[in-house]
Amino acid sequence: MGLTVAEKIIAKHLVDGRLERGAPIAIRIDQTLTQDATGTMAYLQFEAMTVPQVKTDLSVSYVDHNTLQNDFMNMDDHRYLQSVAAKYGVKFSRPGNGICHQVHLERFGQPGTTLLGSDSHTPTGGGLGQLAIGAGGLDVACAMAGQPFYLTMPQIVKIHLTGHLPPFVSAKDIILAVLRQLTVKGGVGKIIEYSGDGVRTLSVPERATIANMGAELGATTSVFPSDAETQNFLQAQGRAADWQELCADRDAVYDQEFSLNLSDLEPLVACPHMPDLVQKAAELADLKVDQVLIGSCTNSSYKDLMTIAYMLKGKKIHPQISLGIAPGSKQVLAMIAANGALSHLVAAGARILESACGFCIGMGQAPNSGGVSVRTNNRNFQGRSGTKDAGIYLVSPETAAATALCGRLTDPRTLNLAPYEFELPRQFTIDDSLVLEPNPQTEIIRGPNIQPCPKREALTETLAGEVLLKIGDNITTDDIMPAGAKVLPLRSNVPAIANFVFASLDPTFAKRALEKKGGLIVGGENYGQGSSREHAALAPMYLGVQAVIAKSFARIHKANLVNFGILPLTFTDPADYDKITQGAVWKITNILARLKTNENLSAESNGQKITLAYDLSDRDREILRAGGMLNFVSKL
Ligand code: MIC
Ligand code: SF4
């Protein structure tokens, strides 16, 4: 039986388990990436492991999320990250060098290798044929310490692409079409693999856009084959030696198959407040828009910026629109500056923003109240932009540029422009001077904002806790642990950031949890979707949360809950969700014994009884019994 691309990479890296769907496996990790918002904790945890140097082939620490530097805290984090990277053998991509996923694709990703990143959009590397997976910071710290990454062997879904994109229809429209079909939970427990003649028509940055937003499907990762197009890209990045061919065998077996004819696609829009609420741009033509933002790890490549420069050249943006553009990397910015494309953007009226995550994570550019903001990034969760009642519409760069010109949401095909013929440069501008090489002699610098990672006690046999919060389906990690300019500077200070847990859903949560000395959270389907931020588990742990009972969980968040010793439990009968009311006290008994034998748990409140399940590997259950990963590894 033949193998898929993902199976080939996993087979080569398998250190434990069998290549069987649903089986627990462990894979060797070749490369890691971290970013500043998750990185400080990851390196504090790595330091606690007392490993002298990272054991991966390559580890890179990026600073891209928080570059506002409102006060000392932010720059303190940068200093800590720079010094800890140097000491332990990690390359350091300085602020200004660009967004981690864009830079990693350009300068470091390699077909056929594994990449583990403390950011949910790490799968961007799938555009190069790399098996790139997002995880919590602690899992990445373990990978840097030389441990394998443990996961459940995902199902593999094939999306067969045929045809070619019509003019002004873009890679973003492909992934929006996939999201419309599969929804934000359609990818949970799955790897999405792209194949077919249509793949050949897509450049690596376009493939990366699609793989990037596979995160919004909840997928473990997405992966493209590595072909002649991949070779061209790597060659143009001066990295011809990093290329290897990689494609699925003809008789590879998939768990699900879909096909998509690119020639039939049209410009699409994800409407507020979920990336899968997809409509045709043409259907929203009456929507008046206040702001357009182009950038983020989804759509800030050289191709994206050249395309919008072509569309805006010689024109002025609509007077009602504020247009912000953040090129994804220093390389992109340097190239559009050198070839004059930047001047077209500036002349059209764009505000040029730093090459960083910026608006995508609510670090500036919050829309006006009740505003309509059309953006090229990947998440439009309510409030993430910094303005709770704003509506965020996710689109391609082409649709964004057309909208900036017209002031209303505009299908770019209606501008009747001649098609833009993009050609991949034969040689990208290469200047890695903002990537610092390690130096083990470096002394680590810790400002007052750098606080140690808290631990918890080992699990007890019985747990009794009040239901502190009962919430519905698709709760995101942005709901659990908001980001934005106020909260992000506290990522290295868990006691301080814990005050903001569930702040936008229930501002009293943190206070109540502390007063009650912890308790339980009850959620619906797909609890914890979105970002990989482990603070969405770590901060609740600090507040004493002992278990989350939900209808189902998103992959990365579930792993983070286990890492921090919080039980991720599910209902055996979904109707039991209705039996639990906020404020009630539930008691769960025989926990240690049942986790050991992998049996369901019984919970009881005022004479009512329910049975709770969990889907955890032997190792996960041991980690929970120990009270989390840090206790678990210290016992090894
Ligand atoms: C995001 O897009 O939500 C982030 C910010 O990049 C996060 C990481 C974080 O919260 O630090 C992610 O996607 O993992
Ligand atoms: Fe940064 Fe946004 Fe990408 Fe997250 S999704 S890595 S915040 S650009």
From TrEMBL:
Q: Which PROSITE patterns does the UniProt record give?
A: ACONITASE_1 (PS00450)
Q: Where is the Aconitase A/isopropylmalate dehydratase small subunit swivel domain?
A: 520-573
- Please provide, alphabetically and separated by semicolons, the GO molecular function terms listed in this UniProt record: 4 iron, 4 sulfur cluster binding; aconitate hydratase activity; metal ion binding
Specify the signal sequence span. Answer: none
InterPro entries assigned to the protein according to its UniProt record, in alphabetical order: Acnase/IPM_dHydase_lsu_aba_1/3 (IPR015931), Acoase/IPM_deHydtase_lsu_aba (IPR001030), Aconitase/3IPM_dehydase_swvl (IPR015928), Aconitase/IPM_isomerase (IPR050926), Aconitase_4Fe-4S_BS (IPR018136), Aconitase_4Fe-4S_dom (IPR036008), Aconitase_put (IPR006250), AconitaseA/IPMdHydase_ssu_swvl (IPR000573)
Residue limits of the Aconitase/3-isopropylmalate dehydratase large subunit alpha/beta/alpha domain? 7-278, 280-407
Print the keywords alphabetically: Iron, Iron-sulfur, Metal-binding
SUPFAM superfamilies annotated for this entry?
Aconitase iron-sulfur domain (SSF53732), LeuD/IlvD-like (SSF52016)
Which residues fall in a coiled-coil region?
none
Keyword check for Nucleus, yes or no.
no
Q: Which GO terms describe its cellular component?
A: cytosol
Which protein family is named in the record?
A: Belongs to the aconitase/IPM isomerase family.
Q: What is this protein called?
A: Aconitate hydratase
Source organism per UniProt: Candidatus Termititenax persephonae
Q: What is the lineage of its organism?
A: Bacteria, Bacillati, Candidatus Margulisiibacteriota, Candidatus Termititenacia, Candidatus Termititenacales
Gene that this sequence comes from: hacA
